[in-house]
Amino acid sequence: MSPISRRSLLRAAAVAGAAAPFSRALGAEDAQAAPGTEAAGADPVTLDWLEDGGLGAAPGSTVGVPWPKGAYRPDQTFALTDADGRAVPVQSWPLAYWPDGSLKWSAHAVSSGSGKLTLAAGDAAAPDNKVTVDSSGGTIDVSTGVITVSIGKNGSTLIRSVTRGAAEIARNGRLVLIRQPEIEDEDQGTVRTERFDGAISDVTVEQDGPVRAVVRIDGKHRKGGRSWLPFSIRLYFYAGADSFRMVHTITYDGTQEPGRASGDFIRGLGVRFTVPMRDEPYDRHIRIGGEGTGLLREAVQGITGLRRDPGAAVQAAQYAGRKLPDPSTWDQRVTTRLPYIPEWGDYTLSQLSADGFTLRKRTEKGYGWIGAGGGRRASGFGYVGGVSGGLSFGLRDFWEKYPAQLDIRDAHTDAAEVTLWLWSPEAQPMDLRFYHDGMGQDTYTKQLEGLEITYEDYEPEFGTPYGIARTSELLFWANESTPSPEALAQQVEAVRVLPQLAAPPRQLIKAKVFGPGLYSEPDRSTPAKARIEDHLDFLFTYYKGQVEQRRWYGFWDYGDFMHTYDTVRHQWRYDIGGYAWDNSELSPDLWLWFAYLRSGRADIFRFAEALTRHTGEVDVYHLGDWAGLGTRHGVQHYADSAKQQRIANTTYRRYYYFLTADERVGDLMHANVDSDETFLVLDPLRKVRTDPYTPDRHALSIGFGTDWSGLVSAWLTEWERKGLKWEKARARVLSTMKGIAAQPNGFVQGSGLYDLDTGEFATADQPVVSVSHLSAVFGLGELCAELIDLVDMPKFNEAYLDYCRYFNATKAEQAARYGTDFGSLLLFQGHSRLDAYAAVRTGDAKLATRAWTKFYDSDGYKESSPWTTQKLSGPVALVAGEEAAWVSSNDTALYGLAAIENLALLGDRMPS
After folding, report:
1. What pLDDT, on a 0 to 100 scale, did the predictor assign at position 502?
2. Where is the secretion signal located (predicted)?
């Protein structure tokens, strides 16, 4: 059986048939590589796991693999083998295409494997237990060959049942939301809450096997006549697995007004299941994860530690989770007194900070809680069930995205209830109100004055959370009996670090994806190269350590880091305007992903993964007038009034998507295709314009730097993916490239008037010099390198290379070329990578020399920088640790990208 579904084959055929219009935009060489010809083929690729241990207890893994242009037709099939040459079942589908129609990225799903795997062209092996999807009835029934999950098509029950064989392991899987309409102000107010249930509006089968199936469920939380807090749930199933994965996204659409105590405050947000309890109370088991792979291991009715001993073998069996012998075989002093041993039906583990969890239990509702332990950081894992089966469950990034909680209720009855709280109801309500009263900044003039002192771009009513989103990941196992401690430890590890297959850096480099030539594998062959590699390692290690030291954790915060350091307070400027959360400023996302692409390091991947999850969801609006725009750096992720393309930039999401085929990130990129419409709603330069300007559908002012780079990245990605709007996206890519090239001064012109209906820039009558130090540092350089490789448009190439050639030039050189210089600029070190790119493209040795000169001796970090940290302890710091007061996130991102790209492009031409 073909590993590509019928739907994918039809789609690929449509792509192949549409290759002719693509080729008209390309040179003759590319046009000859159309998919009607025989594919050239490519060498097999060795895939490996990011971390040791392989798949472990996880249900499966999906990886994206790039291919050189023209190597494979879009409908190419693939085979997978293990280290011994045995066939490994794999499901493959296309992720992206080169403009000539050949396959650029393919995705591959596996449900088994622990070592290296080899991917090559061929026919895929089918799994022994295939995933099947039956949508014919009132439910969608997905079978992995081991478990069957029945998914509701309407109502409030997302998952009707989870069965294994004849046993029902769980049922009534639903969402729960607790709204608190009023927030307490210290000791004032009365706490009232109301519960909303998730109501399904749409269910879609996105994949139907044989190795992987994906079902998407969309809806809103509902109570009575009100529906709010949209959710999007994806359920992932893999062949032969006894588990499934849930990716859970909410988008905030409530109201919380600054200065008011009433509003839509989330008190609790969770996923809940009912678990049948068929065994005797002493054969029912509770397992709750503590630190590491630590577990609370108890029975609902414990028979260990009693005054009377039932026998060592009986006690050992209960602790191990095995079925106990008939009580008639125990010491009868215990058996006859079983009714007097308490049955503990309720357990709660609360993680209300990144540094502490508490665990407690009680017999049943209405009776007192008993402390059962605690620690620092819980794994977010639990199990409830018995010797005849039970449910394991886990919430990824449990303590990192506190406040989180796990509840088990009524385990002493016929049906236990499990709730994984993404926001713990025991925490303070989710308070998203803006953090100050505006301080009188009611005009643009006053707001610009405020910007001068706190660096915050404030504007009334702009600091709203309406439209931001957050994604969480959960895992569930349907166990046929209580798992052994070793099996539970494997499940815990899968929750904490979801196994991920990966293609090696050499394949990414060979395929020439993400800007050909811009990154290469680390090279320490000379002292100069080794020093730069040491500096890159230092910066990543420092930021990774600062996340821990400064506790940059929390439901809305985890994944991001701070912008600027306060050297006097020995603290990052977390409370000062635009110096606080970084929000992708100057492209740290690119720095981290390029660092991973060249190294394949798991720790860098995980750091970048958390950043991508955060910046793509929390820093961007997904609903309302500003949908498609992101928010500039600030004290709160959504607080600043600068809502711009530069933060919503699809470039920052592309890496994670193509490396993992993650559908949620794919949604985010697709949603940006129409974000050019936002320029009609909000003028990003409204506060500083001196010329009369009113947004006009046929004459929108759009900058060629931060604005266009955000737009064209979404269009390019939609075109590559052949999404639903790929034809519009392709036209926009080509028309705007042509429009920029046609300006009197190309990119140096700065901006153009854009027609939303035609997707074209008007050509200016007069040359203008308008250059910003920010234009090229939000992914423009990396995108242009991709576009130049993909599209044959010499005039665009010339316009971009001119920009590269003259940004770091002297003012006299700028004036000689354009009639006037570029004014006062910054970020020369970061722009040295533009010099390096232009040097390679043009063969200009002077540009190569200037690239290294600007890298080593302009602004930013220097060889003479300390490249070390200083110890911190009380009383100057809240928590003992270290600081590098000379480090700033802007400089880090620019140095990291310049170092990586300069080494790749001009590593053989470094100064002695």
Report:
1. 98
2. 1-27
Gap between the Cα atoms of 811 and 819, Å rounded: 10
Note the pLDDT of residue 19.
35
Phi-psi region at 745: left, alpha or beta (left = phi > 0; alpha = psi -120 to 50): alpha
User: Are 888 and 565 spatial neighbours (Cβ–Cβ below 8 Å)?
Assistant: yes
Residue 186 DSSP symbol:
T
Say what the alpha-carbon torsion angle 299, 304, 305, 311 is, to the nearest 10 degrees: 170
d(CA 400, CA 404): 9
Q: Which residues contact 136 (CB under 8 A, 6 or more apart)?
A: none
Decide if 785 contacts 837 (C-beta within 8 A): yes
pLDDT tens column, 480-538: 999 999 999 999 999 999 999 999 999 999 999 999 999 999 999 999 999 999 999 99
CA–CA gap between residue 41 and residue 54 (Å, rounded): 28
User: What gap in Å lies between CA 598 and CA 106, rounded to an integer?
Assistant: 20
Is 150:161 a contact under the CB 8 Å cutoff?
yes
Maximum Cα interatomic distance, the chain, rounded to a whole number of Å: 102
Burial 893-902 (b: 16+ CB within 10 A, else e): bbbbbbbbbb
Rounded to whole angstroms, the Cα distance separating 493 from 292 reads: 8
Spatial separation of the C-alpha atoms in residues 91 and 68, rounded to whole Å: 21
| Nearest C-alpha neighbor of 34 from the set 46, 48, 21 | 21
What letters, b where the CB count within 10 A reaches 16 and e where it falls short, cover 194-205? eebbbbbeebeb
Low-confidence ranges of the chain (pLDDT < 50): 1-38
Dihedral sign (CA 700, 705, 706, 711): positive
In this prediction, residue 37 carries a pLDDT of 38
Backbone torsions φ then ψ of 699, nearest 5 degrees? -155, 65
- φ/ψ region of 85 (left if φ > 0, alpha if ψ in -120 to 50, else beta) reads left
Q: What is the DSSP string of 542-556?
A: HHHHHHHHTT--STT
Tell me which residue has tokens 């200016």: 764
Helix (H) or strand (E) holding 831: helix 828-842
The topology under which CATH files domain 6-121 is Immunoglobulin-like (2.60.40)
Contact 205, 133 (CB under 8 A): yes
Please return the burial class of 265, using the count of CB atoms within 10 Å of its CB with bins 0-12, 13-18 and 19+.
buried
Pairing of strands 630-631, 565-566: unpaired
227 pairs with which residues across the strands?
A: 222
pLDDT of amino acid 185: 76
Burial of 442 (0-12, 13-18, 19+ CB in 10 A): exposed
CB 661 within 8 A of CB 62: yes
Cα-flanking dihedrals φ and ψ of residue 641, to 5°? -85, -5
* pLDDT for the residue numbered 186: 72
Q: What is the dihedral of CA 773, 776, 779, 781, to 10 degrees?
A: -150
User: Please, what is the end-to-end C-alpha distance for the chain in angstroms?
Assistant: 58
Read off the tokens for 134: 């039956």
Residues 6+ apart with CB under 8 A from 533: 522, 523, 524
Task: Give the model's pLDDT for residue 7.
Answer: 41
pTM across the whole model: 0.95
Q: Which two structure tokens, joined as six digits, stand for 189?
A: 């107010």
Show me where the domains of the chain are located.
6-121, 132-275, 649-821
CA–CA distance, 522 with 526 (Å, rounded to integer): 11
Two tokens, residue 411 = 């385990």
What pLDDT is attached to residue 21? 33
